[in-house]
Design brief:
Elements lengths: L2 H13 L2 H8 L3 H15 L4 E3 L4 E3 L1 H22 L10 E7 L5 H14 L3 E7 L2 H9 L5 E5 L7 E17 L12 H4 L4 E4 L9 H5 L10 E5 L2 H9 L4 E5 L11 E5 L5 E9 L6 H14 L3
Parallel strand pairs: 3-4, 3-5, 7-8, 7-9
Antiparallel strand pairs: 1-2, 5-11, 6-9, 6-10, 6-11
Helix pairs in contact: 1-2, 1-4, 2-3, 5-10
Length: about 300
């Protein structure tokens, strides 16, 4: 299976047409049709359902599409790491991050680097800790910024200097919105959307609740992966959302507010990368500058 043919396959999948894909690839339609047919023979499966109007992926085609996108992304990333050997550093830093206000330490570092090495590019992937670690383990990311707790056995890591505060995003009209902090008793009376990682004993919530109370004692209305869409559910009065501070701009949406837990619960973050991995020049340059940036906090 050749990289070139995978690119052909993805182009047909995107265009949903052999004719349009051939035009985009600057090859003839018979040549493209033959390449797709040979790929199907190689894999012993049908990748496309062909109709008079469209060429659509089969279930097996959808499965190959996911793998092909990962393979081509890894090829592009690998190619970008072999930059010219001179004082100017080229390349792309691929960084994945869970939702955290600590990302500003990273972005401040990127800004400083941009002034010194403007040829370095940045690819930022946002997702849950599981998403980031999966892409990190596949080699699609150089670094991951993750909220604790993190199993660091297979990673090198740097503890980040700032922390996030756990609390509840709610409507200002909520009776608990006027509280300076939410106690365990308060939390038991508030319908909550919970972060997906809460079931992995993340964020220290179990310790905060204490021995006599667990998640089953809370009014859990549902769960979410990223807070943006969950904040709209809060705005629509569907529920409140357990989250960390500063992820939703409550100043821009004056109908919402964030109330921290009481006593406060702070969550640390770490920057991780795979052990024994040979880092590119741009990745090493990032780590050196990040370590210097951390000293300023």
């Amino acid at each position: 299976m050749e990289i070139r043919v995978l690119n052909y396959f993805l182009t047909v999948a995107q265009e949903e047409s052999i004719t349009n894909a051939a035009d985009r690839l600057h090859i003839t339609q018979p040549t493209l049709s033959r390449q797709i047919a040979e790929l199907e023979n190689e894999l012993h499966t049908t990748l496309f359902n062909r109709t008079n109007r469209k060429t659509l992926l089969t279930d097996e085609g959808l499965r190959l599409k996911q793998h092909a996108e990962e393979i081509l992304a890894l090829v592009d990333k690998t190619t970008s790491e072999f930059e010219p050997s001179n004082e100017t550093i080229h390349g792309t830093i691929h960084l994945g991050a869970a939702e955290t206000n600590v990302i500003r330490v990273i972005t401040d570092t990127f800004y400083d680097m941009q002034q010194m090495q403007p040829k370095i590019n940045y690819n930022m992937y946002s997702g849950t800790a599981y998403d980031v670690m999966e892409r990190l383990n596949q080699g699609l990311l150089d670094f991951g910024l993750l909220l604790e707790p993190v199993n660091k056995e297979q990673y090198e890591y740097i503890p980040m200097p700032l922390s996030d505060t756990l609390g509840v995003l709610m409507k200002k009209e909520n009776p608990y919105a006027s509280h300076k902090g939410l106690t365990v008793e308060d939390l038991m009376h508030i319908p909550l959307l919970m972060p997906a990682r809460i079931h992995e004993k993340a964020f220290g919530l179990n310790d905060w609740l204490g021995q006599d109370i667990n998640l089953n004692n809370l009014q859990i209305a549902g769960s979410y992966n990223l807070i943006y869409n969950a904040s709209h559910m809060v705005s629509s009065n569907v529920s409140c959302a357990l989250t960390i501070s500063c992820l939703v701009n409550t100043a821009a949406d004056d109908s919402l507010c964030f109330v921290p837990l009481q006593p406060p619960t702070h969550i640390r973050s770490v920057l991780v990368w795979k052990k024994y991995r040979i880092l590119s020049k741009s990745a090493k340059f990032f780590l050196d500058n990040l370590k210097e940036k951390i000293k300023q906090y």
